[in-house]
Design a protein that fits this description.
CATH class: Mainly Alpha
CATH architecture: Up-down Bundle
Number of domains: 1
Mean pLDDT: 93
Structural class: mainly alpha
Order of helices and strands: HHHHHH
Shape: elongated
Number of helices: 6
Amino acid sequence: MHWFLPETPDVLGTLRAQADVTVRGLAAFAGWAGGATDQGPVVRATEHEADGVRRALQVQLRKAFSTPIDQEDLYSLSELLDGVLNAAKNIVREAEVLAIAPDERAAEMAHELHEGMTHVRAAFDRLTGKVDVATGEADAALAAERRMEKVYRRAMHDLLSNEDLRQVMARRELYRRLLDAGERLAAVAERIWYAVVKEG
């Protein structure tokens, strides 16, 4: 008689790998926002790389007999991660189309976005086991998003003194897209809380 054991792919490992790529992508994004224009193509490249890891996770989820946390949570966390890096890629593309360089406020927001994602990545190491650490890291990511909101409000206030309508419109769009990326980051952090509470 042959015994066939169900596959147990390392789905958490793959989710962490996607988060690693996302952190790298957002580090490049922060560099781009700080004036390193050569980092724009890096953001796009990492976004494509992350897509590949996400597809691998989807295949694993279809094959897995059981997973360390709920399959729906794994899928959602992966999807939400994808949304953050997609938002960063689109910001780079939009800035290029509008021929507008990110300024100091945009750089601040991009830095906080990267900072928040490093906390999300740390939380993924504790989705099982020390879940209080995972929720603490999720809270740190949410705090980064709140700092982005404060920078956004200052940036919008600064625009009031700008008489160049084209600059005002372009920068307002850039700031709004950055804020949207922050909200996507917050959605990942909130899902971490949901996954942990549900498993508890």
